[in-house]
Design goal:
Blueprint (H helix, E strand, L loop, with lengths): L8 H8 L6 E5 H14 L7 E5 L6 H9 L3 E4 L2 H9 L7 E4 L5 H9 L3 E4 L3 H10 L4 E5 L6 E3 L2 E4 L10 H13 L4 E5 L11 H20 L3 E5 L17 H16 L7 E4 L3 H4 L3 E12 L3 E5 L8 H5 L5 E3 L9 E6 L8 E8 L7 E4 L20 E5 L5 E5 L4 H5 L13
Parallel strand pairs: 1-18, 2-3, 2-11, 3-4, 4-5, 5-6, 6-9, 9-10, 10-11, 13-15
Antiparallel strand pairs: 1-12, 7-8, 12-13, 12-17, 14-17, 15-16, 18-19
The structure holds pyridoxal-5'-phosphate.
Pyridoxal-5'-phosphate binds next to helix 10.
């Protein structure tokens, strides 16, 4: 099944008059509708809340849109906390899920009265010494071993640096209670980008059983269960997209089988990034070169500094050559950026229609962990971010970096005063 861009070639040509490629483009309508679907799917759970993973798309306008749709934020660092504060998030609107956490980060999280999710047993004393244990506190659980869905190994928690072991979790709740905590959460993130409806239900089952055990062993009532991120998106056209209603149904079944008979009520939290934003972002780039050596190359004006996932994980991102959707995919290309790195390729051996210089290419599913993973290698500058608004207008929500931005942190800026 073909992936259809949310923007037309005509619109891209119109945008081109004001904003040069490359840029990241976001679809406001898609973002809002998807957020509403998530809330609708989980409406059976009183207290359900999505805390959008800021690291996925740390762009104020995007966070504002999600805030309007009822989402909070999941922050992982001082800067993300600061941005969220400026955008009006505070207290229970913020989950602070960090690891290897610096002192200043905890201080700010505490000042904002954020819900702090501790990644380690030793962080209890660390936090207590810095700023005391807040009334609301959450712990990140790592069950170890491998995480399987039926026979498929999804990930390897035993090898992951995150979270507390089962024994530590039990001791940690007792300790937190004795230190004055009154409202408790539990969190776990066991597999990333799961393209299956079974991940959250299986994770929920593990966490709900633990909630019952914690009640029995620690006399602690868990108030919220944070299923974190991990819901995937169908990056490949032949993959089946997750069905959030099916996912929610599976979580509800686990809830009714495990929690309800034990008289326990919890709020379900999620901390999605990819699921909330990836499909609603395109990286728009133009073909600027073609090269014929041992292979056929198309050089585009974006590079891995704009979208790192293909280069670092070999991740697949679908490409639409705009205006050529109905032509046969009878050319095999490597689509490359300009970094002096041979892995700077958006596609390898990809069958596409014949590409000509000047063609617009839409790289799909770049709305999460796309722009945000950008970097400045080779002196490359971060692109602009644009929003395709619900009324069809386009708004620049982050300008492109300039050489002046790149030079701004040097200790001899006077040499660059005349640079724009
Ligand atoms: C703690 C935490 N929560 C949520 C997320 C979001 O994950 P995803 O974008 O896969 O939903 C991440 C991603 O790295 C994370 O580290």
């Amino acid at each position: 099944m073909a992936k259809v861009p949310f923007v037309t070639l005509e619109k891209l040509k119109e945008i081109d008059k004001t904003y040069p490629t490359p840029y990241h483009l976001y679809d406001e309508k898609g973002i809002r509708e998807n957020a509403r679907r998530l809330y609708d799917a989980f409406s059976w759970n009183k207290g359900f809340k999505e805390y959008f993973a800021v690291k996925a798309t740390p762009t104020p306008k995007i966070l504002q849109i999600l805030k309007e749709e009822g989402c909070g934020v999941d922050c992982s660092s001082y800067t993300e906390l600061l941005m969220s504060e400026k955008l009006g998030f505070s207290g229970d609107d913020i989950m602070f899920s960090s690891n290897d956490t610096p002192r200043e980060d905890f201080e700010l999280a505490r000042k904002l009265d954020a819900q702090i999710n501790l990644d380690d047993f030793t962080h209890i004393d660390y936090l207590n010494e810095i700023c005391g244990i807040p009334e609301t506190i959450c712990l990140r659980f790592n069950p170890g071993g491998v995480f399987k869905l039926s026979t498929d190994i999804m990930d390897n928690p035993g090898d992951a640096k995150y979270g507390l072991t089962k024994d530590q979790i039990i001791e940690a709740y007792k300790k937190l209670k004795s230190l004055g905590a009154k409202r408790f959460g539990i969190h776990s993130f066991l597999a990333s980008n799961t393209v299956t409806n079974d991940y959250y239900p299986k994770l929920a089952r593990i966490l709900f059983e633990l909630v019952v055990e914690i009640k029995e062993k620690c006399d602690v009532e868990i108030n919220f269960v944070n299923l974190s991120g991990g819901i995937g998106v169908a990056y490949k056209p032949d993959q089946e997209q997750n069905d959030i209603y099916e996912i929610s149904k599976g979580v509800k079944k686990a809830y009714e089988e495990i929690l309800t008979p034990n008289g326990i009520d919890v709020a379900i939290y999620t901390e999605s990034g990819r699921y909330m934003l990836a499909p609603y972002g395109h990286l728009v780039t133009k073909a600027i070169h073609e090269k014929h050596i041992y292979k056929e190359y198309i050089g585009v004006d974006a590079c891995a500094a704009n979208l790192m996932r293909p280069a670092i994980y070999g991740a697949y991102h679908h490409i639409t050559v705009m205006g050529k959707e109905n032509l046969p995919c009878d050319h095999k290309y490597d689509v490359t950026g300009s970094l002096c790195e041979n892995n700077d390729k958006f596609a390898v051996d990809r069958m596409l229609p014949k590409i000509d210089k000047g063609d617009f290419l839409v790289i799909h599913d770049t709305g999460a962990h796309g722009f945000s993973m950008g970097y400045n290698y080779n002196g490359k500058l971060r692109s602009a971010e644009l929003l395709l608004k619900e009324n069809g207008d386009v708004e620049m929500i982050r300008r492109a970096e300039t050489p002046k931005d790149y030079f701004a942190t040097f200790d001899f800026t006077h040499l660059f005063d005349d640079v724009e």
